[in-house]
Structure formats: structure tokens, C-alpha cells
Design brief:
Helix content: 40-55%
Number of helices: 9
Bound molecules: BIS(adenosine)-5'-pentaphosphate, magnesium ion
Strand order of the largest sheet: 2-3-1-4-8
Largest sheet: 5 strands, parallel
Structural class: alpha/beta
Order of helices and strands: EHEHHHEHEHEEEHHEH
Strand content: 5-15%
Shape: globular
Number of domains: 1
Oligomer: single chain
């Protein structure tokens, strides 16, 4: 169960990841979440990553690869893992393959969650995230029961710093230029499954489960 969630900003990677890790009991590794945690704590890594994230640019490859590799060495990843937002360049994918091979392991399945570009902006501008537990909501698609408050833990909801119209547009362009070539990379490796991310949340999850197997 060494899996990757691939897809543009707003495809629903984080949303589906919470459901996948609950069903299959594997850790969810989101490089974006790791960077946001470091930004919140004011670490040197957070300060460096923030410069790129706020502009919608990718954090430099070597930094990301190092962070991901050290996370994958933790004990909870031995039974499998779900990567979200990593790898994001062909270089990162090659480094990941080398790292896993050196540990006698490999990627078993890449889930390519596709959503039309025109839908992504609305999803991201309307996204709200819980400050306390990280749960994701959407002002119209997935509204919390009480406006601004997390249904799960009662924490305050906020809007991500990179969910502005200008930054989202940059993130989508960066995805097309840097990350989309990965579809071809994994197509050649023969381990990619294509998921229609435009369906509703539960339908997308059902398609993911049938791709991964019960
Ligand atoms: P990251 O945090 O990974 O952001 P992202 O890839 O841009 O993706 P998002 O988290 O914005 O979207 P998502 O697909 O998780 O969608 P979600 O489920 O929340 O990365 C942020 C930044 O960190 C990058 O820009 C980069 O700077 C840096 N970074 C991270 N990893 C890196 C790497 N490997 N290399 C270099 N830099 C890196 O859903 C979005 C909204 O849509 C939600 O409101 C949700 O409720 C709604 N929604 C979800 N599914 C549906 C549905 N089926 N129907 C209707 N609404 C839906
Ligand atoms: Mg996400």
C-alpha cells in the first residue's frame, strides 16, 4: 500500500486522503501540510518554504526530497503510506523511486485525480480549513454546520494564504508545467489509475476504492 495522490491544486487530494487513510489505516503524508506546520511554528524550513508558497511556486526540489525521505523513514510508514502533493516534478519522482528502491520498496499505485481547470478556482477560493485539526470545508460545496467553526473539533476556520485568485492561477500554471509530466512518467511505469475528480465527494471516493481494491 505505497500510494500517491496526484492532481492539480483543488483536485480534492486532501479531502480524499482523509477518507483513504481512515479506511486503509496508513499515514497521510502531505508535503504542503508539513510546510504549513513549519510556517506556523516559525522554523527555518517554514521561513524558506513560505517565500515560495505565497507566490504559488514550488519549494526547491532538494529541500522537498529531503523532507519527504526523512518522513518515509519513520516507523508508521513500514506498512504503507499515502503521499499527497509529493512528488511534484519528474526529478522528485526519480529521487523517490531511487530512495524506495534502496529500501527494497516501490510505488504500487498512483491515483491521478483529474478536475477541469475552470472548476479549480471556485473550489480553492471557497475552501476553509480548521486551524486546530486541519479538517477541510467549502463555503458552498461542503459548508460547516456553523459558519466559521469546525464541525469536528469546534476550532476556527481560516482561508489558506495561497488561496487568493492570483496565487491559485500561478499554482495551476505551475501544476501544468512541472507536475503534469508525471502522468506520463507513471504511465510508462504502468502503475497509474485515472480518477474523475469532478464527481461528488462520495462518488470520487468510491472510484478510488475500486481502483485500490477493498
Ligand atoms: P499543497 O498543500 O499540496 O497544495 P495543492 O497541491 O495546491 O493542493 P491543495 O491542497 O490546494 O488542494 P487539494 O487537492 O488538497 O484539494 P482539497 O481536498 O483541499 O501545496 C501547497 C504548496 O506547498 C505548493 O504550492 C508548493 O509551494 C508547496 N509544496 C508542497 N509540496 C511540494 C512539492 N512536492 N514540491 C515543491 N513544492 C511543494 O479540496 C479543495 C476544496 O474543494 C475544498 O474546499 C473541498 O471541500 C472542495 N472539494 C474537494 N473535493 C470536491 C468534490 N469532489 N466536489 C466539490 N468540492 C470538492
Ligand atoms: Mg491539499
Amino acid at each position: 500500500m505505497n500510494w500517491i495522490l496526484l492532481g492539480p491544486p483543488g483536485a480534492g487530494k486532501g479531502t480524499q486522503a482523509s477518507k483513504i487513510v481512515e479506511k486503509y489505516s496508513i499515514p497521510h503524508i502531505s508535503t504542503g501540510d508539513i510546510f504549513r506546520k513549519n510556517i506556523k511554528e516559525g522554523t527555518p524550513l517554514g521561513k524558506k518554504a513560505q517565500e515560495y508558497m505565497n507566490k504559488g511556486l514550488l519549494v526547491p526540489d532538494d529541500l522537498v526530497v529531503e523532507i519527504a525521505a526523512s518522513r518515509l523513514l519513520e516507523d508508521d510508514c513500514k506498512k504503507g503510506f499515502l503521499l499527497d502533493g509529493f512528488p511534484r516534478t519528474v526529478y522528485q519522482a526519480q529521487k523517490l523511486d531511487e530512495f524506495l528502491a534502496s529500501n527494497g520498496s516501490k510505488i504500487d499505485c498512483v491515483l491521478d485525480v483529474a478536475v477541469d481547470k475552470n472548476e479549480l478556482m471556485g473550489r480553492l477560493i471557497g475552501r476553509r480549513v480548521c486551524k486546530a485539526c486541519g479538517a477541510g470545508f467549502h463555503v458552498t460545496n461542503m459548508p460547516p454546520v456553523k459558519e466559521g467553526i469546525c464541525d469536528i473539533c469546534g476550532g476556527q476556520l481560516y482561508q489558506r494564504a495561497d488561496d487568493t485568485e492570483e496565487t491559485v492561477a500561478n499554482r495551476i500554471s505551475v501544476y501544468e508545467a512541472e507536475t503534469m509530466p508525471l502522468i506520463d512518467y507513471y504511465e510508462k511505469a504502468g502503475n497509474i489509475k485515472h480518477i474523475d475528480g469532478a464527481k461528488d465527494l462520495d462518488a470520487v471516493f468510491a472510484d478510488i476504492v475500486s481502483a485500490l481494491g477493498e
